[in-house]
Design brief:
With 181 residues, this protein is mainly α. The chain is built from eight helices and three strands; from the N terminus they run αβββααααααα. Strands 1-2-3 form a three-stranded antiparallel sheet. β2 and β3 form a beta hairpin. α7 crosses α8. The radius of gyration is 17 Å and the shape is globular. The mean pLDDT is 91.
Length: 181
Amino acid sequence: MEKVTQLINDVIAREGGYSNHPDDRGGPTRWGITQSVARKQGYSGDMKHLPRESAMDIYRQLYWLDPKLDQVAERAPLLAAELFDTAVNMGTARAIRFLQRSLNALQRSDNDHLLTLDGVIGSQTLRILDGFLKKRGRQGERVLTRAVDSLQGAKYISLAESRPANRSFLFGWLAHRIGVE
């Protein structure tokens, strides 16, 4: 089974079936896909009946292929998996900005080129990532992955602080971040 399929299956297993939690601004959700996202992708039925295959297609296209995480995976599979998880939970642009912020912070000197935090994986982001990985190797991939993960955890805490209803989800969000399921 290809890597992205396993990542998608993991998300679906975590997200579960249908939900419509009163504290969740996403509203009706199935397999972790919100009604709004499903509608934009052409699904018009009741969210309680969104087919699993449709959710898998949405995850693959919107959260893997469109943001070019497949190209990141060719270089750094652990990082791509973390970015996918972050994209699913916080949006692709935020996930990529976390990557760009982390790469900028990990640059070794003021002479290193800094990325614009545009939330897009383009040739410049890939070039900087390639340079970083060339300098730092697999250890660099692990550190960069943890940096993105840390930014995601910090954002979750910020969300709970700014909107008390998010506290309903904070424990689960953080438990997933640290591997406690």
